[in-house]
């Protein structure tokens, strides 16, 4: 054997040894949990954990009731206007009468507002079908005082940074007014393809003098104040953007889902089924449009909840609203897990952290504030089912942790994440039943996903896939492809703006 071969063999042996050791540790943790359950099935920590499992795990009865209620709200929302109270799916028409088909072309700028960051993107859609020729991006965080200040301050922030990006991209030349697609990810009552009325704020935004007004008009006014006009050709939200972006590439795409800071879904619907929207006498009722469900506002007494969910809701700006979103989106689920663990840590009978010799329970630093245990921390725990106590201790800000405590934290995080994934899958399946695809699956179907939780949380993607297959059955589930769309809201805004420009020219 050569020296090089010997080194490679040594590396392989070391890798295999490490892999085996890791697998053995996971098996040890699993067996240790089983042994502890046999020895102390009635221990305080086990009792509390069992209680949360009962509360957060969907039962067959809940699944049936929720599926029926989701479909009921879908039908009701398509038939008539729904009061914007944050407790019902709004089923908002988008006024899209031409679904993207991959033939859209042009140079478009896209603006995306709706989370913690503001984004603007340049997109060149090629004359070649379903091909993006070039892209360029700018992203910046939206300051908290802008999110909660005046509407004019928010739109000045958007317009100034958009024009700075456009001027830099144009090389300082003053060209024709740029074409813009505006992704504004809040509940909008669409008046036309590029006009609408903001119905309500979510995701921590509370800007004054915007609800009841047209975001496109406010943006045009801000562009004027900044010294240059742009042509806003399309107004949409992020889920409509995600669906449109992937539909541009794949004509089987019928649903777009966002699961990040917040959550929402859009889907392809027959125009004739949208009774509350008059598309015009020349529009074929069998043609298709896109519906923005605003499913984050769904609520039902059948939803799996625990006391900590109500505590999270009480601490939000929009108390009592958007309760479905608060059970499953990235802004909230880390805090739900944190509050569950904090309750267990404060229970003197559990002794979850610290020594049994101490009369006072140890409270990990990370559990004392919302920022101490964000959803990203929950994701780290779930992604590593065999996480070693020393690693878990660093996440929670304690010196040491027992294997048992580590296992409890892992199970709590997994419970909260799996509930989120199951509710996403359940709502998706309800949409597919409503459209008739489940009853008559004529061909394959693609669901486009975007958002930090789906993109960055691999175990969560697996949970959603598993839940879809369980709810629909493996054979039907196999016909559904779940696809991650990178930057879908911006690309979708560009695609719809290009489609609107083409329709306007025709």
From TrEMBL:
Molecular function GO terms recorded: ATP binding; D-glucose binding; fructokinase activity; glucokinase activity
Biological pathway: Carbohydrate metabolism; hexose metabolism; Carbohydrate degradation; glycolysis; D-glyceraldehyde 3-phosphate and glycerone phosphate from D-glucose: step 1/4
Gene3D superfamilies (UniProt xref): 3.30.420.40, 3.40.367.20
Domain Hexokinase N-terminal stretches: 50-248
InterPro entries per the UniProt record, alphabetical: ATPase_NBD (IPR043129), Hexokinase (IPR001312), Hexokinase_C (IPR022673), Hexokinase_N (IPR022672)
Domain of life, per lineage: Eukaryota
Pfam families: Hexokinase_1, Hexokinase_2
One CC-aspect GO term: cytosol
Membrane-spanning ranges: 12-30
Keywords: ATP-binding, Glycolysis, Kinase, Membrane, Nucleotide-binding, Transferase, Transmembrane, Transmembrane helix
PROSITE patterns with a match to the protein in the record: HEXOKINASE_2 (PS51748), PROKAR_LIPOPROTEIN (PS51257)
Domain Hexokinase C-terminal, first and last residues per copy: 255-498
SUPFAM superfamilies: Actin-like ATPase domain
Gene Ontology biological process terms in this record: glucose metabolic process; glycolytic process; intracellular glucose homeostasis
Reactions catalysed: a D-hexose + ATP = a D-hexose 6-phosphate + ADP + H(+); D-fructose + ATP = D-fructose 6-phosphate + ADP + H(+)
EC number: 2.7.1.-
Record-stated family: Belongs to the hexokinase family.
Protein name, entry field: Phosphotransferase
Organism expressing this protein natively: Chlamydomonas eustigma
Species classification: Eukaryota, Viridiplantae, Chlorophyta, core chlorophytes, Chlorophyceae
